[in-house]
Design a protein that fits this description.
Elements lengths: L14 H4 L3 E2 L6 H10 L8 E2 L5 E5 L3 E4 L9 E7 L9 E7 L8 E3 L3 E3 L5 E4 L1 E3 L4 E9 L2 E9 L14 E4 L4 E3 L12 E8 L3 H21 L3 E9 L9 H10 L5 E4 L7 H10 L7 E2 L1 E5 L5 E6 L4 H10 L18 E7 L2 E7 L5 E4 L2 E8 L5 E9 L8 E8 L12 E10 L2 E10 L7 E7 H14 L3 E4 L7 H8 L2 E11 L2
Parallel strand pairs: 4-12, 15-16, 16-17
Antiparallel strand pairs: 1-18, 2-3, 3-5, 5-9, 6-8, 6-11, 7-10, 11-12, 13-14, 13-17, 15-19, 19-20, 21-22, 21-26, 23-24, 24-25, 25-31, 26-29, 27-28, 27-31, 28-30
């Protein structure tokens, strides 16, 4: 038991699946059709060429972004070419701002018309108005029209901002707000907001991984993660999701999620908010996109694409969720005892059945071995192995026995302690003692300062009063003694109880 520790490795899915997502590029359906849906008109896709015209026109980008009352970060540029693709100089371009019909958002441009230069280009600047929304900008040159989208994105959709307040209908027809799960009660709840689509296979994979992450966070760390799905589109790409889509998603994909849907309308608050979440300079339209929100309502991060459960767990714990390690229960219905350990401010507890000798915990491996060779007494060796012991200040170990065993008294409150160190797979052990306490019936606890255990280890090594457990360490030089003292990996306590 003193010589070996066990580690567990998880088999990961392929790297390609971790980052998989469904992306719409600016061509094809993309932003031309999205703009049409949002504004209530179907704008021509860019680039567009009128029948019989000798020229085509296209904007530099399919979408431009700005905050309310702020200038757009880059000029809005347009290029006009002839039928051979050559720049058309001196072409008169008329620009028309199309107000968002839902929010009345608008923008101000530096010119309503202008002529292209020798390079066939016309450039204007734009400044967002006070209201968030999707504003169209139509350019007309001769018989050619093309359109781009000027998006005014308010606060509430990016990391570092307070999550926006958005109301939508859930799978049961109840109206909810995406902020409903935000709470600081009982240590606070983190929320994962998932912008997804019913036709998206990576979205299904990710939803299943989130459920796995929720269970592990709860069982292994005592952390609650709420999961809210913003089902933007249903089984048909580009079509807003309705209630039946949400019912199906809840039943077959994400049973632990609150599923909000777009109410089968491009004018719905969820549909419009979803596109605000999805907007990204590199991925203007990608499912799934998910945001982690802390208990105070602040967006912690934003990730595009499907990831595995462990990535979600790491995000939550990395965001500041305090892990409260939970007891690891053995695969038995009969629990004999529990061993608890603390290394500085980190603690863990594991339950042991009759056949259990060790249990893995987040802070290290806990051990329990019984010795009943003496008919008048029973001894228990309980221990922890952890790399954290080498730098710790304090270590505590407790043994709690249940049922009638809890009534057996300690033979002595002075308990033997074994301090074990490992350098290059050479193991040595030195014995010392410590005083036990009994905070409640059936429980024996010891707390030791690591500086005292290191001192005992050094004294034992220098005097030769140590056990050579694995390998022959040979001559102990001062340098090797220092190395062992700095490499304590196991602390074991023995408690004996009187039988009868």
């Amino acid at each position: 038991m003193l010589a070996h520790a066990t580690t567990m490795n998880q088999t990961a899915h392929s790297a390609a699946r971790r980052t998989e997502h469904r992306k719409r590029t600016p061509s094809g359906f993309a932003w031309a059709s999205v703009l049409g849906l949002l504004l209530g008109v179907l704008a021509p896709a860019s680039p567009a060429t009128a029948v019989g015209a000798a020229a085509a026109a296209s904007f530099d980008a399919s979408v431009y972004l700005a905050a309310p009352n702020a200038p757009f970060g880059e000029p809005v540029g347009l290029t006009v070419v002839d039928e051979l693709g050559e720049p058309v100089a001196g072409a008169t371009v008329t620009l028309e701002v199309m107000e968002d019909p839902v929010s009345n958002a608008t923008v101000v441009i530096s010119a309503q018309s202008g002529q292209t230069g020798d390079d066939g280009r016309l450039t204007v600047t734009a400044t967002a108005g006070p209201d968030g929304g999707f504003v169209g900008l139509r350019a007309t040159v001769d018989a050619v029209e093309t359109t781009t989208t000027l998006v005014v994105r308010p606060s509430g959709f990016l990391p570092g901002e307070q999550l926006a307040s958005v109301e939508a209908e859930d799978q049961d027809g109840v109206r909810r707000n995406i902020r409903d799960t935000i709470t600081t009660a009982r240590g606070g709840t983190y929320t994962l907001i998932d912008v997804c689509a019913g036709w998206c296979a990576p979205c299904r994979f990710f939803a299943e991984e989130v459920e796995t992450a929720q269970q592990k966070l709860r069982d292994e760390h005592g952390v609650e993660l709420a999961f809210t799905s913003l089902l933007t589109e249903g089984i048909t790409e580009g079509v807003p999701a309705g209630r039946q889509d949400a019912v199906n998603w809840k039943a077959s994909v994400a049973p632990t999620s609150t599923v909000l849907h777009a109410e089968a309308s491009t004018a719905s608050a969820l549909w419009r908010a979803a596109w605000m979440f999805l907007l990204d300079d590199e991925n203007p339209s990608a499912f799934p996109t998910h945001l982690l929100v802390d208990p105070k309502g602040r967006i912690v991060d934003r990730v595009v694409g499907a990831t595995e459960a462990q990535v979600v767990i790491d995000r939550v714990l990395g965001a500041g969720a305090k892990s409260k390690p939970q007891p690891i229960r053995p695969d038995t219905t009969k629990t004999v005892a529990e061993v608890s350990a603390s290394i500085d401010d980190q603690s863990a507890t594991a339950a042991f059945g009759p056949e259990d000798m060790m249990q893995l915990t987040p802070i290290g491996t806990l051990y329990l071995v019984a010795d009943d060779s003496d008919p008048s007494r029973i001894a228990y060796d309980f221990a922890i192995t952890s790399e954290a012991l080498s730098t710790a200040d304090t270590v505590s170990l407790s043994l709690t026995r249940f049922r009638t065993d809890a009534k057996q008294p300690l033979v002595s409150s002075t308990l033997p302690v074994a301090v074990v160190a490992n350098v290059d797979d050479y193991w040595v052990a030195v014995g010392t003692t410590t005083e036990a306490t009994t905070p409640r019936r059936g429980t024996v606890s010891v707390t030791a300062e690591m500086i005292e255990l290191r001192s005992a280890l050094r004294a034992g090594l220098e005097s030769g009063a140590f056990q050579d457990l694995i390998g022959n360490v040979g001559t102990l030089t001062p340098e090797l003694i220092d190395a062992f003292v700095d490499s304590i990996t196991l602390v074991q306590v023995r408690a004996e109880f009187t039988i009868g």
